[in-house]
């Protein structure tokens, strides 16, 4: 076989780390005489034209929106993510697991061998059912727990139910969020401000408190922050400050929980093609050009972040705590 088509396990894993092998048709061959594994090269994928670029069609969905109704439909790794047992036997709860980054994480976790519970709003049942089917197709247990995270009682119930149905919990991904674009602070009512704070700040607080008694050493808490924590947009006054708070709680809690052997990390996406953006998260003007102002000149797809959520939960990421891993097409991270 052509030497260029073969690469070592180390090289193959390196390219997975770079997020480029996620779509690969990598095949493993065992060489019994050496015990070494070799792989057919994944080939290079040009990040500039791997996914759709603006201009995008005008589209507006009622909040919270459905991935299945977006044009183009986002890529969450449904056809591409390949696992290698990195999370075998783990038990994960992902909020906002029906769509976007949460769905990408759910698919990847299941294909890495984890049982997965997802939370979402009742209006998102069609998206959630697709995720449940994908988790089951990976041979893992899927638990669907719809409900509104703005209620403290529900957050407690969510964790209890996930622990009961999964038989424990060792990965908690606080990923759900509310983002509604408003040109002026004057346009944000106290009720709307409160809804953003409840979803993005209170819900992780309530959920983590409920989960903590169940998390053993080696467990991971992962938050979805945002490029907005570092480079806030004028029209996201309320949302952006919740993402700064998210980045901050990751670092505080990592300090607090390290002595218990629990890691806390965050993911900071840039502009990613998800329902949040087409259901009030962005102005129509911004949506049509979405991601076009990044150096890669396109938005990211949820699938492009799946590997980060895996890495932050996996045993081999054990020295990472209090970290924020970004993926933003080249702009706006520290
Ligand atoms: P998304 O719409 O697919 O996911 C957000 C999810 O939040 C929804 O699916 C919904 O289930 C959940 N949610 C919202 N309010 C809720 C409530 N009250 N109760 C229960 N669930 C609720 O969009 P996404 O972009 O994948 O968002 C996931 C995370 O990524 C969010 O934290 C968001 O802030 C973050 N993020 C997104 C972008 C982007 O450009 N899309 C950029 C940076 C950060
Ligand atoms: Mg959704």
Automatic annotation (TrEMBL):
Q: Which residues cross the membrane?
A: none
> So which residues are the signal peptide here?
1-30
Q: Which domain of life is it from?
A: Bacteria
Asked if the record carries the keyword Signal, the reply is: yes
Stretch list, region Disordered:
40-65
Family assignment from sequence similarity: Belongs to the short-chain dehydrogenases/reductases (SDR) family.
Name of the protein: Uncharacterized oxidoreductase YghA
């Amino acid at each position: 076989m052509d030497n260029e088509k073969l690469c070592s396990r180390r090289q193959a894993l390196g390219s997975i780390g770079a997020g480029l092998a996620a779509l690969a048709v990598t095949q493993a061959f065992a060489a019994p005489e050496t015990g070494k594994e070799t792989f057919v090269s994944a080939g290079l994928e040009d990040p500039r034209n791997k996914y759709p670029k603006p201009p995008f069609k005008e589209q507006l969905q009622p909040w919270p929106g459905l991935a299945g109704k977006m044009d183009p439909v986002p890529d969450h790794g449904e056809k591409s993510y390949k696992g290698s047992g990195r999370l075998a036997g783990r038990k994960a709860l992902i909020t906002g697991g029906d769509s976007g980054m949460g769905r990408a994480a759910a698919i990847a976790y299941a294909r890495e061998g984890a049982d997965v519970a997802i939370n979402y709003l009742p209006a998102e049942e069609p998206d959630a059912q697709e995720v449940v089917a994908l988790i089951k197709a990976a041979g893992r247990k899927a638990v669907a727990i719809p409900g509104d995270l703005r209620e403290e009682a529900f957050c407690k119930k969510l964790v209890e139910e996930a622990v009961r149905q999964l038989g424990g919990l060792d990965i908690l991904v606080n990923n759900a969020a509310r983002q509604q674009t408003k040109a002026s602070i004057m346009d944000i009512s106290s009720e709307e401000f409160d809804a953003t704070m409840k979803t993005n700040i209170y819900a992780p607080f309530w959920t983590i408190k409920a989960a903590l008694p169940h998390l053993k050493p080696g467990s991971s808490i992962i938050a979805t922050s945002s490029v907005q924590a570092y480079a806030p947009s004028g029209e996201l006054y309320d949302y952006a400050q919740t993402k700064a708070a998210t980045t901050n709680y990751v670092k505080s809690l990592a300090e607090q929980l390290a002595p218990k052997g629990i890691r806390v990390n965050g993911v900071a996406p840039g502009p990613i093609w998800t329902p949040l953006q087409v259901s009030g998260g962005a102005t129509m003007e911004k949506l049509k050009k979405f991601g076009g102002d990044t150096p890669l000149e396109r938005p990211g797809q949820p699938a492009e972040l799946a590997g980060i959520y895996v890495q932050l939960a996996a045993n081999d990421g054990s020295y990472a705590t209090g970290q924020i891993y970004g993926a933003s097409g080249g702009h706006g991270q520290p």
